[in-house]
Amino acid sequence: MSGHNVWTHKGTFLLAAVGSAVGLGNLWRFPYLTGENGGGAFILIYALTIFAVGIPILIAETMLGRTSRQSPIMGMRHLTKTHKTSRAWESIGWLGAVSAFLILSFYSVIAGWALHYTWLMLTGSLVGADAATISAGFDALLASPGLMTLYHTLFIAFSALIVGMGIHKGIESGLRIMMPALFVILIVVLIYGIINGDVRAAASFLFTFNIADLSLEGWLQAMGQSFFTLSLGMGAIMAYGAYMSSEASLTRTAIAVAFVDTAVAMVAGLAIFSLVFGAGLETGQGPGLMFVTLPLAFADMPFGALVGGVFFILVLGAAVSSSISLIEPVAAFLVERFDMTRPQAVTIMVVAAWAMGLLTVVSFNIWAEGTIFHTLFGRSAFDFIELLTNIFMPLGGLLIALFAGWALTQSEVMKELGTNLTWFKTWRFLVRFVGPAAVSFVFLRTIPQVEGYVIPTLGALLIVGAFALSQRLRKPAA
Ligand code: PFF
Questions:
Q1: 228 CA to middle of ligand 1, Å?
Q2: Which long-range contacts (CB under 8 A, 24 or more apart) does 144-150 make?
Q3: Is the pTM here over 0.90, yes or no?
């Protein structure tokens, strides 16, 4: 594509990818999953996947975006033509679009909770409150579809506004203000945690490995989490990569993104568990860890309301910088494919994801049990959507690894990577064998254990998808 947009600065891709990677995954999901899955053992699988599988796939996904210089779906179509491979690989783009849409739908609802807690903290409503009051408050929020929908709407509309303003005025400028502020807040919260909490207990909880502590589903969660936290396998990184300067190094950038992302998760984990242990509270609270346990810890601490409020602002900012990267790939596709204006494209994606998000909203109250999702999949709509994304993201990553490692013309790939032969061969070995083997291993080990008709349903979807694709492939390319 001639004249395709590129970020204003060479380093903006790094900023944008870190903005996408660092989010609720680091601040909310990582600590609570670690708490539920026995600490260090979970982190071991998570960290191994990030470094052996995540970084190589991050490089591959960025490269696909940068060589095609288009949105993920159109970009994949373009690459299958120029590299003369099967058009079936285009499914990577579609799988990514579906995952982005599903993630955005629940991501915005959870971020909405943070909006509620920012308000509660800064108004001092929770100062001195006891455990029963705080947990009743969280339950009341979850029981109210109206309140949750309100916050969900505000959050998603704000994210839409940024993406609607375009990649320079909206995304780039937004990130340049938000990201430095987020890092400052994170450090402040860590120092506060060290002073007021029990950082030793936190560190020993996070870094003592006992692999037997990890349940079988914990493996899938740890791998799903490492893809989720790096925003991998779903087009967000590919879409941002399409605007990346040709001069920036793919390898160095990917390592930096993974490093910063992991560091933020560890720092957030340390800060949160310091406060939790310091207040003598439980770690295995699940999704309520950040919304019940943490406010409780803040309730009795000096300046707790202020630091707590600032902490939830951090959560919100990190969530916005991630949710915009979920909107971008689909919006860019609609602009390229249907010639829409950017505001039109963003509106379509966001309104659809907003409506889908209502399923998550009701999963916590009126549809908390006894729905068709419970009958078919043994879990609520929200839990089912989350499980799907835990499967789709590694699946997308697996396909990206295979596509980059086997299907693309390797001389072109080497040129785009722009590194020496040794690193190129190492990277290629990782995406050809190590990544696919690791993802398949975890899938084979864990997926059969998933209860309900999840597997037959996924199988049926796969068959329908393959059929639809084969119909399309028969038509001559437009
Ligand atoms: N990486 C984000 C987080 O850790 O919160 C979540 C996310 C953003 C996942 C964008 C996927 C994505 F494309």
A1: 5
A2: 144/365, 145/361, 145/362, 145/365, 145/366, 147/116, 148/109, 148/112, 148/113, 148/361, 148/364, 149/358, 149/361, 150/112
A3: yes
Q: How many CB atoms lie within 10 A of CB 208?
A: 13
Q: Report which of 138, 154, 124, 137 is spatially closest to residue 308, judged by C-alpha positions.
A: 124
Residue 255 has pLDDT above 70, yes or no: yes
Does 325 sit in the ligand 1 pocket, CB within 6 Å?
yes
Domain range 12-474, CATH class: mainly alpha
6 C-alpha to ligand 1 centroid (Å): 22
- Distance CA(256)–CA(249), nearest Å, equals 11
Q: Which residue has the higher pLDDT, 424 or 38?
A: 424
The domain spans of the chain are 12-474
Whole-number Å distance, alpha carbon 422 to ligand 1 midpoint, is 31
pLDDT at 256 > cutoff 80: yes
- Indicate if the pLDDT at residue 475 is higher than 60: no
DSSP summary character for residue 198: -
CA–centroid distance, 231 to ligand 1, in Å, is 4
Query: Does the C-beta of 33 come closer than 6 Å to ligand 1?
Result: no
Residues 6+ apart with CB under 8 A from 173: none
Query: What pLDDT, in 10s, does the model give residues 66-103?
Result: 999 999 999 999 999 999 999 999 999 999 999 999 99
In short, whether 23's Cβ falls inside 6 Å of ligand 1 is: yes
For tokens 């560890």, the residue is 266
pLDDT band at 174 (very low <50, low <70, confident <90, very high): very high
